[in-house]
Amino acid sequence: MLSTIQLTFGAYLLVLLAIGAYFFATTETRRLSDYLLAGRNVGAWPVALSEVSSVASGWTFFAWVSVGFATGIHGLWFSLTMIFVVVFMYRYVGSRFRRQSEALGSITVADHLALAVSDDRVGGYVRIVATVSILLFMGAYVGAQIIAVGEAMDTGIGIDYAVAVAVGGVVVGLYTTLGGFNASIWTDVFQGVLIFVAAVSLPVLMIAEVGGWSAFVAEAAAVEDAALLELSGGLAGQALLISVLGWVTFAFGTIGQPHSLMRLQAIRSERLLSPAAVIAVAFQSLRLTVPLLIGAAGRVIYGSVDNPENVAMLAIVDFFPELVAGVLLAAIVSAILSTSDSMLLVASSDFTRFYEERIDPSASQGTLILLGRIAVVVLAVGGVAIALAQPGTILEIVEFAYIGLGATFGLPLLFLLFWERTTGEAVLAGIVAGLVATLGTYAVTEHYSLLVWPICIAAIVGVTLATSRTGSAVADVPEPTSSSQLADD
Fold it and tell me: Which of 102, 339, 444, 450 could form a disulfide with 57 if both were Cys (CB 3.0 to 4.6 A apart)?
């Protein structure tokens, strides 16, 4: 007989499918940009909540909780850096990127980099390498999310891991295929509210179980082999420096997350970026700190567990009534699905744009939308395959994908937007360097994040200086116009 938790969770999944079906039935989708960017007509609240939900993934409630379980608040080095980067992206990158994206007609960051290069030959190479990079890193990222879905449903709901992986892959693939970016945005908004409830209530109950804040502080300080409430994490000297630099360089990957950058392309007006930034930073601050407390409280309560990435799932089942637990487990899985749907859309759109630009320029918009939907299904199946293989922990897989995307797309985009001397060849060099450096350094050292950024920066700057006179030009950033400064009315 199905439990209350299972019934509640199943009802939640049906709501997601209903949202996808609603937008499939009611949205007029004639152009690829309608399907992939919702016609560039998304407001501040949906953009901000969706952006936070799209990165509040299995990494947050599984991998990040496990960091809190192992090292406590030492992970705040990552959190503080990422908050700083989010502010920078909204304050300085968002308006320039949104403006240039509309001028170029770009749909994703990979599409943007290719269209920004004036030389069609160089732009073609940019699109090829960028598409390969997207499929590689996003494929790994989606696989990590579906692993988290499987662990959540296995630990919290009692569904076999393999079955859970298949169910999660089918649901996210189906509602994204049906509703496109509109479905992704509005399921993310719905999920963002649930994420907030889960993130606030769970640590409060766990700390109350310990005996209150004072008792928690005392017991956390008494835990052996872990400085849970020390920013140093109990490290000192060179070990502390390497650890801090590792977290900081990991967080720098935020500059190049395609599923977040799509939100900046889709927002209705540049003027909405400021309120969206406030909303996003508030929610990001919450989701980057609270899971560390959940992990630290789990260390105090449970002592040791087979898999620290499942601590949040164990706590939800232990500390909430079944009905509430079902809703909150849905909130955790919602965070995972919200990341997966965004990633599927990005990878699908880049593959579709590659088809349109390099294989069949005469393809109709209907054909491209159909191809995009087919690509979502194929990528979802690939993510399920990776999840079944489980090549590493969620944290390891996400870190690899996060740094790879940041270096491959984030750095070239920043140089393109802010350094006028950047050439098309330098953009291509940056993408190639990001791909090769991430793969190469990952294979030889656990501290690969420290090496990727210097390599990529050197490649972009070096090629720019070498080709500044003979290289292909890149598009200028248009000046603000009255149409781009419209208020949200």
Answer: 339
